[in-house]
Amino acid sequence: MKIDDLQLKIILDSRQEKTLEVQMASGNYYVKSSAPQGKSRGEKEASFISAEEALEKFQNIKSGLLKKEFSSLKEFDNFLIKLDGTPNKSNLGGNLMLVLSMAFCRLQAKEEKKELYQFLREELIHNFPLLDPVLTDYQPPYFFFNVINGGKHSPFGPNFQEYLIVPQTQNSEESLNLAKIYFAGLKSWFLKNNYPLSYGDEGGLVFPEKDDEKPLAILKEVRKDLLLDDKIKFSLDAAASTFLKKEDDSPVDFYLKIINNYQLLSLEDPFHEDDLENFKKLKSLIKDQCFIIGDDLTVTDANLIEKAITRQAIDGVIIKPSQKGTITETLEAIGLSLKNQLKIIVSHRSGETMDDFIADLSVAANAWGLKSGNITQKEREIKYQRVKKINDIASR
């Protein structure tokens, strides 16, 4: 495939901060993609550069991208990696490389007259042939809705970053309806108890008290009031690297308590990203009671995921393409995770756009979950709606 036209511009994300949008064309086909950006970032993630710097870097590489023909996504991404020439993408920036890689995926899918999720699934199987039986039957993801925002996603409140509800259905429409009913009930609880309705980065409510456990107690009370005990479970993203150091006293006992009290479905990043031993300890103590998920610990990096698997430290991983900078590397992390029976949750970032790429990625990978924030922001709901649309396409 030869790229005939390539343009990059600056747009605003859901936090009204500058990010990148690329337009790419080949023959009669035209696509665009935009890059999300995270506020809570693992130290081992691909480097992020400013939108203005990305525009300058883009001008330096644009002619080279237009001159060359690419036989595959892997060849395109490897060309970008070689142009960058650094281990953490600090030259071109992971955000610039990602938006180009995403656009190339879309363009190649169009040229092959495939839906994006179909193209991505075939790329996965091509790179990991043993996954063919695993990916034969389509399994929609569970939706993880962030209904109370804390940590870096909120101006104040608890240390923990995301308090999530997970409707226990893989029917997208039913899951969205349950989220709307539940969130309306949560807002009513806030008003009834004289808490203001203010919103964090990901569209969830801001809880004004510095109490890590109380939001879970509120979620449990609302679920009971709505008679949804058998239809909704809770998940928690502690994002512990934002408030814990590796040498701090371990909160293992506290986690054991809240896992038991609130029957948590999953717990993400409960310790500092370098504290692999406590990940392993907690996982061994809770056994199958709750799934331990790595994010800052693993940053969508196949080598770090392999290390966590070897140490038996996690049950699952968060997949964020922006953590690596290319879709090829993201698929490598997914393939390794699937091969080792890890649960995959494909995730958005705190600064989002109207790009729904991660929805197709979650379907392509038969991901266990899709985490895209709350339904109050259009940039987040569009990802859930895209999965719903794919369900409709796949069922025809």
Description:
The protein is α/β, with parallel strands linked by helices and 396 residues long. The protein folds into two domains: 5-113, 2-Layer Sandwich (Enolase-like, domain 1); 130-394, Alpha-Beta Barrel (TIM Barrel), CATH 3.20.20. The protein contains twelve helices and twelve strands. The chain has helices at residues 51-67, 73-84, 94-111, 116-127, 172-192, 214-225, 252-262, 276-286, 302-310, 327-339, 357-364, 378-394; strands at 5-12, 18-26, 29-34, 142-149, 162-167, 205-206, 232-237, 266-268, 291-294, 316-319, 343-347, 369-371. Strands 4-5-7-8-9-10-11-12 form an eight-stranded mixed barrel, surrounded by five helices. A three-stranded antiparallel sheet has the order 1-2-3, covered by helices on one side. A hairpin with a 2-residue loop joins strand 2 and strand 3 (29-34). The radius of gyration is 20 Å and the shape is globular. The chain starts with a strand and ends with a helix.
Return the CATH architecture of the largest domain. Alpha-Beta Barrel
Helix content: 40-55%
Number of helices: 12
Return the structural class.
alpha/beta
Query: Secondary-structure element order, as H and E?
Result: EEEHHHHEEHEHEHEHEHEHEHEH
| Unreliable spans | none
Q: Any idea of the CATH class of the largest domain?
A: Alpha Beta
Shape field: globular
Gyration radius, in Å: 20 Å
Number of discrete domains: 2
Gap between N and C termini, in Å? 30 Å
Q: What spatial order of strands do you see in the largest sheet?
A: 4-5-7-8-9-10-11-12
How much of the polypeptide forms β-strand, as a percent range?
A: 15-25%
Chain oligomer state: single chain
Q: From the 3D structure, determine the CATH topology of the largest domain.
A: TIM Barrel
- The CATH superfamily of the largest domain is identified as Enolase-like C-terminal domain
How confident overall, as mean pLDDT? Answer: 95
| Largest sheet, strands/sense/barrel | 8 strands, mixed, barrel
